[in-house]
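ENTRY TYPE: paired fold submission
RECORD: A
CONTENT: sequence, then structure tokens
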Amino acid sequence: MMEKRYIGVDLGGTSMKMGVVDGTGHIVCEMEQPTLGQEGPDGVIKRMISHARDLANQSGTPWDQIGGIGVGLPGFLDIPNGVVKHLTNLGWNEVPIRDRLQAAWELPVVINNDANVAALGEAWCGAGAGVDDVVCITLGTGVGGGIIAGGRLIQGMNGFAGEIGHIQMDPRGYQCNCGQTGCLETISSATGMVRMAMEGLNEGRVSILKEMVPGQNQLTTRDLFAAAARNDKLAQEVIDRAIDALARALAILSVVLNPARFIIGGGVSKAGDALFEPLRLAYGKVTQKNAAQGVEILPAKLGNQAGIIGAAGLIARSPN
């Protein structure tokens, strides 16, 4: 008899990724489809239901051998009740997605925040495999995070645990979309880094960034790291500030959670050693020595598959 398999769904603003995953976290079959958010929740959910059944057929998995389906979503969720409270990118509000999917699939369904789901994937089969205490951080447009402690995903009272990007680093800093000022996200995200660089350019700072990106409208963190490699002072200052804030946030997390590993993913992490080497040095300087002892800071491994694997893991690795 075939062992149970699971379906993981990673729903984003532009694409819907899903895969059939076995009990070891291996993706047996996967697909990616456009989200088509303009269809509203009814249209997106209808196609999600259909795509999951198609995927099971493609993988050769009978529907009665699917043990359940996990769904990662990019927004504010009422996780215990399976309700989407608000998805900014899709304009959804108060959508009882879990109950609708369970009724259609006749299978257990669990939903969670996409950052938590990616963390679960990395902890299960990626850079966090083999240890029970991991903090995963995504440095992209914003700063997302997920916490695995004692092998379990930590969600908190209302599912807000792991919102690492909203640790306040500078009370007199930039306004954050969350309403606070000086959140980590305003400094160490790709958006924050580009904004700081643009401010410098607009103030008349001399920088090769002006030559690299005419008009500066398409400035990226890749440009910043490339300019810093050419000894550009402005680019290096921006990177140093972002790394310092991130290191201090990791120091706070270390004395609270004492993880074995920090896993860093997202677009900014593609800078590789130019990010990780100074981050490790800065972390070592600002973190209480006992809390820092033996801690590893590693790049994420799974890329876009982390969401699929982690979503399936919501069911496959559930203690229930």
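RECORD: B
CONTENT: sequence, then structure tokens
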Amino acid sequence: MAVTDWRAWHRDYDDPGSDLSRRRRSVQASIEAWLDSRDDETLTVASACSGDGRDLLGVLARRPDAGRVRARLLELDDVLAGEAERYAAACGLDRVDVRRADAGRTASYAGTVPADLVMMCGVFGNVTDDDLRRTVATLPRLCSPGATVLWTRGRFREGDLTSTIRGWFAEEGFDEVSFDAPDDTSYRVGAQRLARDPEPLGPDETFFTFTR
């Protein structure tokens, strides 16, 4: 199995016209819309495989209400996790916690969930279809009532699985909030809201493993 150099992968964000940069802007627009739709005094965010955290941190850094957001970022790569910590500190985001942990294990979310926003950005394209289905089925265990899940998935040569993914969310009791799929890019960004009762986190188990 080829191992992706995730630090090099992140360099595509340096090009504002790249698909990754456009995807980030789409994700950030969804985060902005979610924040604008919530008037809670405190909101909890759990971000899986968060990398340098800029998807979320870039939004919080420019919002006057960032102090109401308590976020935990899960990232195994020590360098990327360190970048997220430094950026959060530089922006004064003292309610952001970066944990070096395996986001594919439910135990890593203890103390953070149930969360009001669960971010699965950069996950669904790096796991098997079986793990992806298992992840969607696990998400109600990470969610608070009415929580939103924000996810991304690329369009691959072998086909576009996003219609199937959206169907899996519906089967698990989620309503679709938005779906961004520009014709001239390979990325897709979805937001789904839990429309049924959430489930308890339960015992530790692995629900996804990266394949690259």
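NOTES ON RECORD B: The chain is about 30% helix and 25% strand. The two ends are 7 Å apart (CA to CA).
STATUS: closed
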